[in-house]
Amino acid sequence: MTTYELITTFVGPVCGLIGWLAGRRIRRNETIKALQTTIDMLVEKNKELYDEIMRLRKENDNLRDDAVKRDNKIASLELQIEQLKK
């Protein structure tokens, strides 16, 4: 086998293998980048939802406090009405 035959026989498949391995690595890196982007987007959305939940919880607590105050005032007014009826 001459040097030329040796080179033409093995260089093609070796270059193909190297290209496939490099392409595989690039594809894997692109996949990892896409996954990281998706994870970052989900984390940001989760943070926004968490902030919204915290805001709604505070609002709910304020409404609950207002309802307790209103119920106490109603009870007080009902007691005054009962006293006035006597």
Structure description:
This protein has 1 helix and no strands. The protein has one helix spanning 3-85. It is rod-shaped and about 125 Å long. The termini are far apart. The relative contact order is 0.04.
Radius of gyration: 37 Å
Q: Helical stretch count? A: 1
- How do the helices and strands follow one another from N- to C-terminus? H
- Structural class, by secondary structure, is mainly alpha
Stretches where pLDDT is under 50 for at least 5 consecutive residues are none
Strand tally:
0
Proportion in β-strands: under 5%
Measured as a percent range, the helix fraction is over 70%
Keyword list:
single chain, 86 residues, mainly alpha, 1 helix, rod-shaped
Helix/strand layout:
Elements (H helix, E strand, L loop, with lengths): L2 H83 L1
Summary of the model, kept short:
With 86 residues, the chain is mainly alpha-helical.
